[in-house]
Amino acid sequence: MTFTADSAQNFFPDISNYSTQKSSAVTSAIAVLKSLNVDEQLALLWFIHTEVGYSITPVATGPARLHLVAGLLNQIKLMSDEEQLQVMRDLIAQKNTQISRSYGILSNNTKLAFWYELSELMVQGIMILIPTGNELSQQGKEAIKALKNLGFAQKITVLRKVITDMGVNPFIE
Asked: Which ranges does the record mark as transmembrane (predicted)?
């Protein structure tokens, strides 16, 4: 017997829905995360980072990309804690600031490298930590639950989508 996609569906009737189910879970998690207030979005980004961030290595993001974000990160490092936190909030809220515009023109992988390096600076105590002490709203708790139910690759997909949508691209109206 020849094994084809059609014959596989006879043995595994839900196989055609597998990709759709995975996509739906990711889309739903992204929608819930983006519906939260900015500080809760930051807290959930930190949660995702603690879940998968250490699996995103500088090698994966690329040494050239790290060079591209170094100037931007150095600029942020010189700011006060409150200003650093405001930069992160502005990126999420897509406020039209100089840093949001600089971030907005970066490639998707470079944006991933930016947040990887930013989180490493937080862990080292060089950058302000994302506030996590506040009680999450019910929506925030639902978002955490949705993220916990995702597989590793799905969490990476959520992280990439949220990070790439941040900032302001001055070349797009």
From this structure: none
How many domains does the chain contain in total? 1
Q: Is residue 11 part of a domain?
A: no
Structural domain boundaries, residue 82: 18-164
On the question of pLDDT at 58 being above 70, the answer is no
User: Looking only at Cα atoms, what is the longest distance across the chain?
Assistant: 68
For residue 136, being part of any structural domain is answered with yes
Q: Is the full-model pTM beyond 0.85?
A: no
Backbone angles phi, psi at 50, to 5 degrees: -65, -25
What per-residue confidence (pLDDT) applies to 55? 59
Report the chain's mean pLDDT, rounded to a whole number.
79
Cα distances (angstroms) measured from residue 35 to each of 30, 31, 63: 9, 6, 33
Q: How far apart are CA 97 and CA 167, in angstroms?
A: 9
Among residues 161, 166, 137, which one has the least CA distance to residue 150? 161
